[in-house]
Amino acid sequence: MLQITNLHATVADKPILKGLSLSINAGEIHAIMGPNGAGKSTLGYVLSGRPGYEVTEGSVTFNGEDLLEMEPHERAAAGLFLGFQYPVEIPGVSNVQFLREALNAQRKQRGDEPLSGGEFLKLARAQADAMGMDMEMLKRPVNVGFSGGEKKRNEMVQMGILDPALAILDETDSGLDIDALRVVGEGINRIMRKPEKAVLLITHYQRLLDYVQPDFVHVLADGRITRSGGPELALELEREGYRELAA
């Protein structure tokens, strides 16, 4: 599904990714762990097409297409979703309207018919219920006045509505208490643990992986993947830290 080969990227002319290679197949969940400043969030931003992140070398294909040649909205329509470490607030923009416009824009890009207001509300209500969110919250401005846990639940509702093929989740566990972490973990499994989908989890800690069991764990240090393994690698990192394993 996703093939990253020798990826180099800079931010403000500073090299961040320095030869990163990674392959993710459909049906797989991969976790990337590593110290601060290693390039984990940069990888997510590069894959999603965020402005200011310049690829200087390497290639990325997504379902056989050149991802780097796509505009951000084209990547989203192709099935890529980026979950933010700190979801942004958008004052004055209704959550429901935002999500309906986003979904129908993607459907149009794919050549599908837009959902009617009633069809969309039925879908949104089902996803909100699954995440324990009141529909009234979806009528409020995007993330405005939400707690950290509510923002992450709202992001899971967004992911459920948009139904991506590949979810890149950047420290989704950040700011979550134990109960919220469980609910978000269950949401990831419910939406994305399917044979035709894949997940790239970016995290510092083992705790999210207690709920979302990865198939592979990778250590990212100094802009490249320095070690890969199974779920046991995350436990080793938790015990030993990054110093020895990132080298």
UniProtKB/TrEMBL annotation:
PROSITE patterns: ABC_TRANSPORTER_2. Residues 2-247 form the ABC transporter domain. Keywords: ATP-binding, Nucleotide-binding. It comes from the Bacteria. Gene3D superfamilies: P-loop containing nucleotide triphosphate hydrolases. InterPro entries: ABC_transporter-like_ATP-bd, FeS-cluster_ATPase_SufC, P-loop_NTPase. GO terms for molecular function: ATP binding; ATP hydrolysis activity. PANTHER family: ABC TRANSPORTER I FAMILY MEMBER 6, CHLOROPLASTIC. Belongs to the ABC transporter superfamily. Ycf16 family. This is Fe-S cluster assembly ATPase SufC.
